[in-house]
């Protein structure tokens, strides 16, 4: 038994360990966020509500069926409901009815409500998909921030390792009297600065991982981490298309555009519903009712008529139709029509504004890709130049032709250039993915 328990505990610890050691890829983060993000879940519930609205609208076309039952007792002078005679006694009576009614015509309002409910469901789906698009971009940006911060930490660690070697060599030169002790202090200050940079980088990694985990609705921040991967600039031919071509294609599939367009269609359907209130409404009904009284006696025998016999003796059916004609209602119908017309104009303006915003975003993304790539190329050249300058400074420092302060400044320039290159690389990758996303290309770092 102990062996079995030990085995189970071992398996459990392995499973837990594997879960804790999971490294998330970008694709896994995007998929998980879409499935678990709180904003997405809220819009999914809105979509379920839209389906219920459609069910309500369809149900309004169907006949209604309702029944009622009542029972009462009266003592003293009372009206017998079955004989309509006043009697002085204790009377127990009961009644029941069943009524069905249906709307035959209401200016097509119910029909238009069904069509509107269908549009609402479509609109809710577009809004849900649009929120997923936003989540994907946010996750990609947060993921790349973690990557950038991790890569910066690696650079700082490598720089500190080099500085520690320089520190040891400088210590030997100071001990031998070749260099003054001030040079050693300068190298020690450089090492302390790099250690501080490492601490800041570790903090940035933690903060960026928390931001990414929150997008995924994950609260176990300590065990959350992304895959240890390094990404080069991904190949892309997106710039072979003009910004106009990318915008025109985005108009055909972007969910924010479809959501705004559906808003116009919903406003138009609201206008049709409002106009339907100008017409007469026609309905029909049928009612079956029956009653019972313990004072209802057979006129020939004087005996009380049994309950079940009274149910069919006292029953009756009524049916009919009714028409409601709107004549004057305080201008409410007229004003609702005007409001609906205004809502159409508002929705149309919102649609045009959304298109204009998309065009602005696409053009900005297009310019960003070009500019950030140039910034990346410039950062590469800067790092190359700073590295050559550092190597030259190191050679001069090693032979005593440069003091420790000047050498430290040269190394700081390399440190800054490497950090700038990392940031420029991931800034460019993210802008590239945004532009590709507008062209319908899924987010991936491959």
TrEMBL record:
Keyword Cell wall biogenesis/degradation: no
Gene Ontology MF terms in the entry: efflux transmembrane transporter activity; porin activity
Single GO cellular component term: cell outer membrane
Pfam families: OEP
Keywords: Cell outer membrane, Membrane, Transmembrane, Transmembrane beta strand, Transport
Subcellular location: Cell outer membrane
PANTHER family recorded: OUTER MEMBRANE PROTEIN TOLC
Family: Belongs to the outer membrane factor (OMF) (TC 1.B.17) family.
Protein name per Swiss-Prot or TrEMBL: Outer membrane protein
